[in-house]
Every structure is written in structure tokens, then in C-alpha cells.
Amino acid sequence: MCRSFTTFSRLLLLIAGLAVFQSSRAEYGINFPPPAADVAQEIYDIHMLTMQIATFLLLVVFSFVIYSLYFHRKSRGYQADQNFHNTWFGSWSWVIVPALVLGVDLTIASNADTVLKKVWDVPKDEKLMDVKVTGHQWWWEFDYLDHGIKVESRFVPKEESGDLYLREVDNRLVLPTNTKIRFLHTSADVLHAFWVPELAFKKDAIPGYVTETWSELNREGVFRGQCAELCGTWHSRMPIVVESVSPEKFAAWVKDQQAIKVAAAAEASSSKTWSREELISKGKELYETKCGACHQVNGQGLPPAFPALNGSAIVNGPLEAHLNIVINGKPGTAMQAWGTLNDLEIAAIITYERNAWDNKTGDIVQPTDIKQAR
């Protein structure tokens, strides 16, 4: 009875294991994603060649093991050979087997070395489109150097992204197909790493250095990656979404972005006096986008690295000190300079911070105040 129960229990465990395996296989892909660049296809092909060789070797080794376990088992009266190590195979297998494995490795390495040079050696004799990629804690900044466009890309909160939580961003990295693109990688604070599998490469973003990679997308689509370097508390909130479009669609997108930039600059430089409600409304949106990642949407911060702004001595203190720290940052801390924002954006953010949550200073900051403080 006990023996049959044990057998039945094992059967149940096997069925449960298979069910878990099937559900996990339905959730996660078991191979690399389909490449979107020629050099990525070459990497994929090397991966598949490696897997084919490994599978063949696995079958050969397991065949020997299964054969030996079955025909050389004790129940058949087989006696272990105590002098196997003195036979020809027992002596030379320690050389032959590693030599065969090394031969397989060298076969793969030859192709891998060629592809690796293609990945890292940026074409010098052709006109490339330049995109500067800057990692921040915790968002990405993309500068289209040939078009005068800058895009800030941040993760989308769970209530907005749904099933794509930590995989969706507010602004995608839009790139044209059939165009050689050079990526210039750097960081504004700590080590980050730009990684989109379909583009073929993963590259560290190092503070104070600019490194380069390149790619040429051969199909349209949306490709998702993420920061691949542990960069701090919210490392997981640095997804990357690349949207590959035709050159015609990309040209139209560039035109729209340039028009938005011109309109924003004109709005910021106008002599208009903004109302308190307008500044707070605009400031709330900007704060939650640009400041909320560190200081929290509710202003509570993440002390000690990111102090709370709700009840802060800076926010509730002299306006000049508040303006200075937002525009110039604070050396030696994670507070970076936000002087790259236009006058209206900084004025709106500071007005919001000084009138949000429990902060009730009543101060209204106009773009002209920011212009004078720069």
C-alpha cells in the first residue's frame, strides 16, 4: 500500500511539474527575439549554431550514459572494471575529449570574432545618423544630433502601462529603417547600460566618457530593452522602447518634433504673465514627469539620497535658494542641474513645489524671474 502510494505521489508530482512547465513556457520565450538588424541576425545565427552543436553533444553524451546505466547495472551482475583507467581509452580520453570540445569552441569563436568586429567597429567611410544616448537615474535622454531634437524617455506607471509595466515608456526612441545609426553612449551620474536585443548590442554608459556603437534596422516594429547595469534603487524603472519606422515616417516625426520645440521655445520666451493656476497645472505635470522619480509624486522623497520636498526647508525657505538649487543642482549629491529646462518649465515646477502638499508659501514664479536668476 505504501509503495503504491509513493508511486501515485510521484505521478502527481510529475503531472504538476509538467503543468508548471507548460504555463511557464507560455509566459516566457525560450529563445532570442527575432533580430531587427543584419548584424543582430549574424549574432542570432551563431547562437543557433552553438545550440545545435550543444544539442548534438548532449544527445551523444546522454546516449553513452543511458547505455552504460542500463547494460552495466548491478542487477545484471555487472562488475565494475577496477582497471579502466589503465586502458587506452581511459588514459587518452582526458586529452581527446577536451581537444574535441576546444575544436568546437574554436569553430564558433572564428565566426564570433568576425561578428564582434562588425558590432564594435563603427563604419567610418559612410554618413551616419548620430544619436547621443545619456543614462540618468532613472531615465534615458536621446539627442538626435543631426536634427536638433531631444527626447526624454521615462517608464510609465503601472496604472497606465498595464501588462507592459516596466516595459513601456512615455517617449520612444524613434529610428528609421535602412539607415546606419551611430549611438554615442554616456551617463550623467552612474554606470548604466543601453541594451535592446534586436539591435545586436549592449553598451555601458560611463560618466565622463563617450563610447560608440552602431546599428542599421532592417524592419519596422517596436523593440523593448532595458538598462543592463545595476544603477541604483530604481534600476528596474529604466526600460527602453525603440520604434522603428520607414524613412518617410521618420522624416514626418522629425518635422513634428521640431515644430513642438519651436512652439515651446516661443511660449517660454513670451512676455506673458502666467496665472497661479496655469503655473501650478503645468508644474504638476512637469514635476511628476521629471522630479517624481526621485522626490516621489507625493513629495515624500526617498531619504537620505532624495530628501522630501513636502515641508522642506529649501522649498519653504527663501525663493533665491530654491531657484539656485533647481537651476544649478547641488554638487556631491544626486541633485543634478536642471538649467537645461526652459524658463517657463522651471518657473512652473518651482511654483508647484512651493504650493503643493503641505507647502503653502503662496509664491508665484514667472519665467522672467528664472531668466534673471540664471
From TrEMBL:
Highest taxon of the lineage: Bacteria
Residue ranges of the TM segments: 50-70, 91-109
Record key words, sorted: Copper, Electron transport, Heme, Iron, Membrane, Metal-binding, Respiratory chain, Translocase, Transmembrane, Transmembrane helix, Transport
Matches recorded under PROSITE patterns: COX2, COX2_CUA, CYTC
Residues annotated as domain Cytochrome oxidase subunit II copper A binding: 126-256
Membrane topology: Multi-pass membrane protein
UniProt cross-references to SUPFAM superfamilies, sorted A to Z: Cupredoxins, Cytochrome c, Cytochrome c oxidase subunit II-like, transmembrane region
Localisation: Cell membrane; Membrane
Pfam families for the chain: COX2, COX2_TM, Cytochrome_CBB3
Major localization class: membrane
EC number: 7.1.1.9
Catalysis performed (reactions): 4 Fe(II)-[cytochrome c] + O2 + 8 H(+)(in) = 4 Fe(III)-[cytochrome c] + 2 H2O + 4 H(+)(out)
NCBIfam families for the chain: CoxB
Name of the protein: Cytochrome c oxidase subunit 2
Organism this protein belongs to: Sedimenticola thiotaurini
Lineage of producing organism: Bacteria, Pseudomonadati, Pseudomonadota, Gammaproteobacteria, Chromatiales
